[in-house]
Write a structure and sequence with these properties.
Elements: E1 2-8, H1 14-24, E2 30-36, E3 41-46, H2 52-61, E4 66-68, H3 77-114, H4 118-139, H5 141-152, H6 163-183, H7 190-222, E5 227-231, E6 237-241, E7 250-253, E8 263-267, E9 270-273, H8 275-278, E10 284-286, E11 291-292, E12 297-298, E13 303-307, H9 315-328, H10 332-342, H11 344-362, H12 364-377, H13 380-400, E14 403-405, H14 409-416, E15 419-422, H15 424-428, E16 434-440, H16 447-450, H17 454-465, H18 473-479, E17 489-494, E18 498-503, E19 506-511, E20 525-530, E21 533-541, H19 548-557, E22 561-565, H20 570-580, E23 583-585, H21 590-602, E24 607-610, H22 617-622, E25 625-629, H23 634-638, E26 642-644, H24 650-685, H25 691-714
Parallel strand pairs: 15-22, 15-24, 22-23, 24-25, 25-26
Antiparallel strand pairs: 1-3, 1-4, 2-3, 5-6, 5-7, 7-13, 8-11, 8-13, 9-10, 9-12, 14-26, 16-21, 17-18, 18-19, 19-20, 20-21
Helix pairs in contact: 1-10, 3-4, 3-7, 4-6, 4-7, 5-6, 6-7, 6-12, 7-13, 7-25, 10-13, 11-12, 12-24, 12-25, 13-24, 13-25, 14-24, 17-18, 19-24, 24-25
């Protein structure tokens, strides 16, 4: 299957979302459609042989103006800027006309009380008409085009967009005013027409700017340069479009520029700012042969890379694709809001007609104004944007902390978790064996070895381990980097046991306890023997991650009970758990990790599981929210709701804090949208609201929703308040 991303800049409301979804539903080759109105994106999962251009045609037939948009490029800004420029021109004309028409309207209203010559009143009406014509004919044209397209697609079962009642209100008010002007009888509503258009365009412009803010925040992750410097055979470099650069190309990265493609350093050293990709602010150094990723920023001298992937296969492209899919995916509350919004427009049209009929009976002079106000005041836009705007802002904020959600429901789940199960090895600890201590068992009693001090003996053990490929051998290499492997001779590796060699006339062995003649046995310890006598035990363990204590404290502050569930030995688990102040369970198989998760859920707990190994997959799959690092295997990532772009555990506290903050904002937005419509529409129908107030309310409601959601971008995530939970008792080790 292929995922195509389509930008639809003229998508405004829940009706637009419904139309696009219905237009694409059931088409051959289309598996799923995800629509994100907050970012004006449509993601279509379709068969590989489906031409993306045909998808554009389907959406265009539904009355929109779509364009293909590569989510990995992040370059939708041009279209957005052009749209804002066009809106600004239409807004400027509407604003100038509004100021003039309102001056005429004030004079006409004053004349109604103090008396005004009929000829002068008609002159003001014609002057108002003159200024109103460009507003209706130019400034309001996007509403008319969208409404006509929406009506044209009604027969296909697509819903009506919010532009239908908007266009109807503008057209009706202008037409009635024109008729009254030409006949010299009745009221004119030019002031309402220009003010309504101006306020609507203002709302659209502000709405666009807020959405552009989301795009700018996303751009730090997704934007890549248009071209890269490809090194030619003669050593010269020339700019080539990214899409034309295959894997295996040599690319030069200049100082201050972004790394354009994934690759390995082939010339020079790289000093990189990887914050856009991992959320970590510290610069890192990459040497020759090490991997660098597209989207990171070169803070040092220029260097050369050999690309390992085309632009569409880069790591950043995969992350952006996951994030876009999660943003477009709708949680249950958003689907309910869209369901209501899609039926809102027909209900408003019926209510406006009913209002007109009722007022014809009560007071015919108020019928048109009341019906017009009902059309103007209703706003399903706020309802349909309430959830996706908050989710988009929250996901953007999380990505700045190095977190990518693979499904939007995970954000709601993160707000509800109250227990966490954490793996030990590779999660709370650095998955890199480290020499942590030496216990001397005996001193050699004969020959040359008897005269060696402990430093020399440790160096000989390190020299032997330099000939081994076992992961534990790396601990000796790091602890004794200057030891020469040539100190020992006749080296022989014994598979599953250790390494044997000679120093002078003595036989040295490094490896398991039995191999070295030691009676004790510890799978994570390495022993040294000289001439068959065990002389030293080297303790090797994975060091605790530097931010583990801070991360645990953050999760506790958010009210989570934390349990470390590990397959490691009890003594190691106990020591780490006591250091961090958390509950623990040792020697847990994948099946028992799953059982621990389910037992917590049976007690009514909402469980967050964090792991990075295959043995964590069952628990990850069963968790309410699951998290894994991006470097995990595909099987692990496939069962994770949350991906950590780096191994910074503090991001987990950010996840919970932002999730809870987003939940509050979604509830605030939905409350406002529902309260506004349930209050304003009846007031308009009963005649208690003039059209200009209705226009102001409609414009302000959607702006308020977007502004409220954008607060998530401005505030640094912090753990939610809550009492720190006391650690649960240790589970029985098995």
């Amino acid at each position: 299957m292929t995922l195509s991303t389509i930008s639809v800049n003229d998508m405004h409301c829940g009706g637009c979302v419904s139309k696009i979804e219905k237009a694409l539903a059931g088409r051959d080759g289309i598996r799923a459609t995800f629509v994100n109105p907050a970012r004006r994106l449509v993601l279509v999962e379709h068969a590989d042989d489906t031409d993306p251009v045909s998808l554009l045609q389907i959406i265009e037939d539904a009355g929109f103006h779509p364009s293909l948009s590569r989510i990995d490029s992040g370059r939708r800004g041009g279209g957005t800027t052009e749209r804002q420029r066009d809106l600004l021109k239409r807004l400027g004309i509407a604003g100038l006309a509004m100021m003039q028409v309102m001056m005429f309207a004030i004079a006409m209203y004053s004349g109604a009380f103090t008396g005004m010559d009929e000829a002068f009143e008609r002159l003001l009406a014609y002057a108002s008409l003159l200024f109103c014509i460009p507003v209706v004919g130019y400034s309001a044209m996007p509403f008319f085009r969208s409404a006509v397209a929406s009506l044209r697609t009604m027969k296909s079962g697509a819903g009506l967009s919010m532009d239908v009642p908007i266009a109807l209100a503008i057209a009706a008010a202008f037409t009635i005013s024109l008729m009254h002007t030409l006949t010299g009888t009745g009221e004119v509503y030019y002031d309402s027409v220009v003010m309504f258009t101006f306020l609507l365009l203002t709302a659209r412009f502000v709405d666009d700017r807020l959405k552009a803010r989301f795009e700018d925040a996303n751009g730090s992750l997704a934007a890549l340069p248009e071209k890269a410097l490809v090194v030619q055979e003669d050593g010269s470099a020339r700019p080539v479009p990214l899409a034309a650069i295959p894997a295996g190309s040599r690319v030069w990265v200049e100082q201050g520029n972004q790394v354009p493609l994934d690759g390995t350093v082939s010339l020079g050293d790289a000093v990189l700012d990887e914050s856009a990709l991992t959320g970590e602010s510290d610069w890192v150094r990459r040497h020759r042969g090490e991997t660098v990723f597209a989207g990171t920023l070169n803070r040092g001298a220029g260097f050369q890379i050999e690309t390992v992937a085309a632009v569409d296969d880069t790591r950043i492209a995969g992350i952006a694709s996951l994030a876009a899919r999660a943003q477009a995916d709708k949680p249950a509350v958003a689907r309910l809001a869209d369901h209501i919004a899609a039926r809102f427009v027909p209900a408003v049209l019926l209510l406006a007609a009913a209002t007109w009929l009722c007022w014809q009976i009560v007071d015919p002079s108020q019928a048109f104004v009341a019906a017009l106000t009902v059309l103007v005041v209703s706003c399903p836009c706020a309802l349909s944007l309430a959830t996706p705007a908050a989710i988009t802002a929250a996901m953007t904020r999380l990505r700045q902390s190095g977190i990518v959600l693979t499904r939007s429901d995970a954000l709601e789940g993160a707000a509800e978790v109250d227990a966490a199960i954490v793996d030990k090895t590779g999660t709370l600890t650095v998955h890199e064996p480290t020499l942590t201590g030496i216990r001397w068992l005996a001193q050699p009693q004969s020959g040359t070895a008897a005269g060696m001090n402990r430093t020399e003996l440790a160096g000989l053990a390190a020299a032997l381990e330099r000939h081994a490929n076992h992961p534990l051998a790396r601990a000796f290499v790091q602890a004794y980097p200057d030891v020469d492997a040539g100190l020992v001779s006749d080296v022989e590796t014994v598979p599953g046991a250790g390494v044997q060699g000679r120093y002078a006339e003595h036989v040295l062995r490094v490896g398991h306890a039995a191999f070295c003649g030691a009676e004790e046995d510890d799978a994570r310890a390495v022993y040294l023997s000289v001439d068959g006598v065990p002389v030293a035990r080297f303790a090797i363990s994975d060091p605790v991650r530097p931010d583990a204590a801070e991360a645990v404290a953050g999760l506790k502050a958010a009210g989570l009970d934390i349990t470390m569930v590990s397959g490691d030995a009890p003594e190691r688990c106990r020591a780490l758990a006591e250091e961090l102040g958390i509950a623990w369970a040792a020697r847990q198989a994948p099946e028992t990790k799953l059982e621990v998760t389910r037992e917590l859920q049976r007690r009514g707990r909402r469980v967050l599981v964090i792991g990075d190994g295959i043995n964590d997959v069952p628990a990850l799959a069963a968790a309410d929210v699951s998290a894994a690092v991006l470097e995990s295997s595909d099987l692990v990532k496939g069962n994770a709701d949350v991906l950590l772009l780096s191994r910074r555990l503090g991001a987990l506290a950010d996840l919970v804090a932002v999730g809870r903050r987003a939940r509050r904002i979604v509830r605030q937005n939905l409350f406002w949208a529902l309260a506004y419509n349930l209050t304003a529409v009846p007031l308009a129908a009963l005649g208690f609201m003039p059209p200009w107030v209705a226009a102001l309310g409609m414009a302000g409601s959607s702006i308020l929703v977007m502004t409220n959601a954008s607060r998530l971008l401005a505030e640094a995530p912090r753990p939610a308040a809550g009492a720190a939970a006391a650690p649960a008792p240790a589970l029985e080790a098995r």
